[in-house]
Amino acid sequence: MDFYTDKNIEGLYIKLKQVINVNVNKNYLDASDDLVNNNKLRISGYEYIDLNEKLDWENIEVGRSYLRRLNGHIFLGDLLSSYEETNNTIFIKKGIEIINNWMDNFELDYELKNKSKYAFHDETTALRLNNWIGFLLVAHDLFPAEQLKRFETNIEKTAKLLSDDNFHNKNTNHGMYQDLSLLLYCIVFNKDLNSNIYKEISIKRLKDYFEFVYTEDGVHKEHTPMYHYEVSKCVYLYSKILKDIELEFSNYLNDLYTKTLRFSYQILKPDGRFPEIGDNAPSKVISKYKDLYDDKKYLYAITCGKYGSKPLENSVVFKDAGYAILRDDWGKKESALYILFSAAYNSRYHKHCDELSVLIYKGENLFVESGCNGFEYSDIFTQYGYSSYAHNSLIVDNKSMKLDMNLANNLQKLNDASLNYEDVYIKDYKISENYSYVLGVNKRYKDIIHKRSVEYEKDNNYIKIIDNIGSKNKHNYKILWNLAVGINIKYEGDKTYLVKERTEEKIGEISFESSEKFVINKYFGETEDIPKGWYFPKPKEKEKRYTIELECDCITAEIKTKIILYDKLK
Question: Do 249 and 240 form a contact (C-beta atoms < 8 A)?
């Protein structure tokens, strides 16, 4: 073995293990046994593949998400963990067998013309290199000599491909993963004459990406806070492993990581979960990111106030990132009121048609978006999840806003829209102890300007949302309010209440006013034409929920939504 100058390969693996992918199945030993003994390849969250039949690495019938994980060789993490636990080399031999199968199919295809194949998807290629390097560091002595040489050659080819700017996915988290895997290669394969060149390339591209994707306040801009966490975690871990290898870059990463803290705890809902915006799943942050920051305010946020210290700021605005987060009191813990107003178009990745959307939580979700149904873009519910219909936003002429990518673009009716990042923004805001005001602007529609203000009076639990919609032409306008699962509205006399559907307990009041004549429509799990009234607790799972629609036909309109939330049930 001569690819690394330091002969302490075990020590190197221990050092790098924190950035090398590990097992993906909770019961990794069972999954590995099934793979070895029954030839059944299991990837968490998906049906198994029977390897007694031909292994088709490009079979789209299993879905693009599965193919990306399959070609990323994430199953090697299960096999490695099983080997480390049992010391049984049969797990390594199975990994070598499947790696050889992949190389039999693709080792002559390391060319840019093949980047459309799932085998050479941008992030998948980076993921595979990461898994290969981890597997090599542990299993190098168990490879037959010729197979080891072949494997190392394929690793070198992968690094060369990742270094190519024409293969690199600039200014995206996919590109970041490409560069981190390339940097990992340079650490391990430092006898490669190209490793210093590759290191310079990867560090420069990483700096370019971080300066593009983080605001001055340290907020990641890819429209899905989970990626703020994921990218910030990478920043943190690589700052640690590079301390005695590339000190200047390590310090750069550490400074950046420090800036990411404030948003990381402020964005969380009072229940310690991610808000359901972008491609977020409403998962508990503590389950995966407990040790991301050694900070008492962060600990308070992820434990719902059980531990740590209460943050001092109840309401904050991250203007450049386009987030306004309004709370009544961190001290109320899981019962606190939380309003999230999103007004930005900073990146096309993980972007939904959610311009000027508002989420409201008070002890539980009240007004939410659909969440993420996954990344199978041919699925009508995935298209719905990306569309304007799944968000608390504006619909014009019965058409969803169009995205910059072929995601929601298969819905039957689409509204052409500006792709300029500057056309959605927070224009103004005021934050005080008892009163908060935020004004957002959306200019993405071709002949329409939509302005939405959110006002919150803390002492009265009063929220007022005003939509000003202006155009030179007559349009059909719809303002959508997607309620959480189990929440409904109930009319009693001249009042409309927010109620818990199962018990009819009143949790607040809601009223609507408009400068123009309007009608109120209501949907619940509709599937005809375009889906309406759906929520995704996790990808590929859906639940029906109510959607309230305020509709008017006019040139301009001012629509007011007023909400009073009760501290106690009435």
Answer: no
- SS3 of 367-381: ECCCCCCCCCCCCHH
Q: Which letter does DSSP use for residue 305 in this model?
A: T
* Beta carbons of 358 and 364 less than 8 angstroms apart: no
Q: What angle do CA 166, 169, 58 make, to 5 degrees?
A: 90
The alpha carbon torsion through 9, 15, 19, 23 (nearest 10 deg) reads 70
Question: What one-character DSSP code corresponds to residue 532?
Answer: B
Reading the block at residue 479, the tokens are 């303002």
Q: What CA–CA distance (Å, rounded) separates 431 from 317? A: 8
The structure's pTM equals: 0.90
User: In this structure, are residues 228 and 264 in contact, taking their beta carbons and an 8 Å threshold?
Assistant: yes
Please, what sign has the CA dihedral across residues 454, 220, 224, 386? positive
Strand order in the sheet with 337-342: 316-318, 323-327, 337-342, 357-362, 365-367
CA–CA separation, 317 and 305 (whole Å): 22
pLDDT digits (tens, 9 = 90+) for 519-530: 999 999 999 888
Closest CA to 199 of 176, 183, 178, 179: 183
Contact present, 361 and 272 (Cβ < 8 Å) = no
Q: What is the DSSP letter of 42?
A: -
**Tokens found for residue 173:** 């988290």
Tell me if residue 318 falls in helix, strand or coil.
strand
Largest Cα separation within the chain, whole Å, is: 83
Domains and CATH numbers, the chain: 9-166 (1.50.10.100), 316-565 (2.70.98.70)
Q: 315 CB contacts (<8 Å, ≥6 apart)? A: 324, 325, 326, 327, 431, 436, 456
Q: Which of 508, 526, 521 is nearest to 562 (CA)?
A: 508
Q: What is the CA radius of gyration of the chain?
A: 25
- Residue 171's SS3 state is coil
Q: What is the pLDDT of residues 262-319, one digit of tens each?
A: 999 999 999 999 999 988 888 899 999 999 999 999 999 999 999 999 999 999 999 9
Return the structure tokens found at 183.
């940097």
